[in-house]
Amino acid sequence: MSESGLDYHGERRSKFGLPCPHCFPQATLNEEGDSEVDHGVEDKYINLFDFPKFGGFTNLSKLQSYNTRDLSFPWFADVVYTLKTPIPHRYNSVYNFVLESRRVQDAVQKVAAERNQSVKSIRKEAIKCLAKMRASLSRFICRICGYVLFKVFRRVMKKLLINPSQLMKLKKAEDTGIPIVYLPLHRSHLDYLLITWTVWHFGLRLPHIASGDNLNLSGFGWLLRATGAFFIHRSLNPQDSSNKNEIYRAVLNSYMVEVIKAGMPMEFFLEGTRSRFGKTLLPKNGLISNIIEAVEEGIIPDVYLVPVSYSYDNIVEGIFHEELMGIRKEKESVWGIFRGILKGFGKKEKCGTVTINFGSPCRLKDYLSSLRTALTDDSSTFTVNLDYSANPHSYRELLPWHDNVTSMRTLIRAVGYHVVFEAHQQKPITVSSVISMLLLCQRKQTTLNVFIEDMNSLCKDICNQGYEIVGWNSEADQQKIFEEAISHFRHSVTISRENDNGSEEVWIQIPQEHYFVIDLCYRKNEAIAPFALLSVISMVFDANMGYTEDGEVDMEDTVFKCLTLCNILQVEVIFCRPCEDLKDKITNILKNVLRSMDNGYLEVNGHVLSFDLSFYGNILRPFLQTLFIVVKYFVEHQKPNPKDRREIDFIRRFLLEKSKNRDPTIFSESYNSDSVYNSIKLLRMKKIVAEDRLELIDLGHAEHVVRLLEKYIREPKF
Q1: pLDDT per position as a tens digit, 136-176
Q2: What single DSSP character describes residue 314?
Q3: Residue 470 to residues 261, 336, 438, 619, Cα–Cα distance (Å)
Q4: φ, ψ at 429 (rounded to 5°)
Q5: Residue 178 to residue 304: CA distance in whole angstroms
Q6: How far apart are CA 11 and CA 365, in angstroms?
Q7: Domains in the chain, please, with CATH?
Q8: I want to staple 679 with a disulfide (CB 3.0 to 4.6 A). Which of 33, 160, 350, 627 is the partner?
Q9: What would the 3-class secondary structure string for 3-39 be?
Q10: Which segments within 313-361 are labelled E, that is strand?
Q11: Which of 383, 447, 402, 412 has the alpha carbon at shortest distance from 585?
């Protein structure tokens, strides 16, 4: 046990990270029943920074414990380790294959005819696109970076925890000859480096990484290319009249396909961008649609999809406070990113403990077969909404670029949602997130001793639901666990000896300042997975809805109201896999809740929970509150403001106005740019606000939404 109280090297306790039991039932059984340990590898976490101490993964079986903190560093350990750790694979150029591909040649011919220009001149455009895009992976540069990153990561992180048994599964998958596509969630700019650096330690092929072209600036492009980055536009030109977009699409599609055909792995972020508010984003399916199409057409035999998730105590570049509060941000650039990371170097180990979780590799063909069946077997099934308009000017979101057939669009989205949901569920939760959830959902001043007891109880609840909390153990010293966790965001919590009753005890509560509440909410949002559906059910009960005149619960009506809230929250939370029936999931939890409440307690999935329903309702309530104030604003201001040329202009003005006159019954974290943006997105999906401008187009529907939300947005007072 570590001195801090946190035990980072115990058995992995999460029930997530296995193949989906609905889509891959046989694979799940095989993994759960497989008691063999590959090369002496255990299902525990180990600090990757300590690999030079004992010679790397080939010597894992010789370790007496995965707690390698007290092992000594040999002289020049990092240098020796870097030299001895090979990069054995070749990374051949696919340049000519891309230009000679049928898709690029057809696009060149088509555009040349439409513009009445020579094929040669259009081909030059394709060559220029490819030159700006392609990676140029250098094993020599990667080896140097491998050594340098030991120094960089040890400066900004306390530990980098990985589970070697997960990496051994990836090695088995790679040995089949089927390429791997890594699909990580995105929290920090360090995410770009972590997968490449981690798989290097295990002798796996280094991936090609899709990166925004904003990073291909200021002389750093060559270095990123040499470590596997290829650069894509973040948006299309909506005024394109010369078909340059068509050439670019063809080159990008062919480049991705040819890299994978060559047996090289690939990595891109399905969320499309870093999460601004700590929670998992809905998938942007533009890039994965290329791979799905190639597999469907037999151009690529198959790929393994691997969901990846990260947990940070702190992200090195800091939380997007100003942006979330509606303050204009600086335009992102490589130098800005570099300055942000350098700023993170100011405080040693700023990121705290970072954990990487790799899900089980599953074959895309199996995904497609299973999801195609799930989507066609029963059209009445309630699941995630896969039928919505995409942003036509975003490469990350546009899908498919080549096919308007609804069934194909739905299938592509189903794969994206499934992978993001798996990554979201397997993500380890930090104690910092648990503390933040406790503060924001209790919303009261309490003694520190009682708070720590509640923290312990909430950690138990989360673990009992099958999730994992990084380093937490019920038998550890909870005071020490609290002290280590709170050290990462002490500035965002009010701890004092002052109390209205004049007590001399130490008290803890959320601060008054909006800035610090936003910080807490970012952390809380990373821990919503265990209680998302329970939060919806709790809000329905808090509103005293779903009851008959006799005081009995009307099950059908209650389930309907829960489904309605899930529909309203669809842009904020993914509640289930596309292969699952959301109605069945709600019904099962509801039956648990009702049965246990009759006996005077609250139980879900066979485990008694420690808090009342209003606590769990407060987990998702802020999202409804944001939607309420946004819809109400549109109802009260039906004439659009001419200053709101873009969404961001509206959001900044809206938050500035509200900052001067906030509703005290609305949680202050509800006033944030991320939730306002998602509210506008939902209103457009519901055809309440115009698609091309910020104007109300369905007053009756908007007023209905206001009346509906009024029942749920107020925290119940007992």
Answers
A1: 999 999 999 999 999 999 999 999 999 999 999 999 999 99
A2: S
A3: 38, 31, 17, 20
A4: -100, 140
A5: 7
A6: 32
A7: 45-93+116-426 (3.40.1130.10), 429-527 (1.10.10), 531-718 (no CATH)
A8: 627
A9: CCCCCCCCECCCCCCCCCCCCCHHHHHHHHHCCCCHH
A10: 353-358
A11: 383
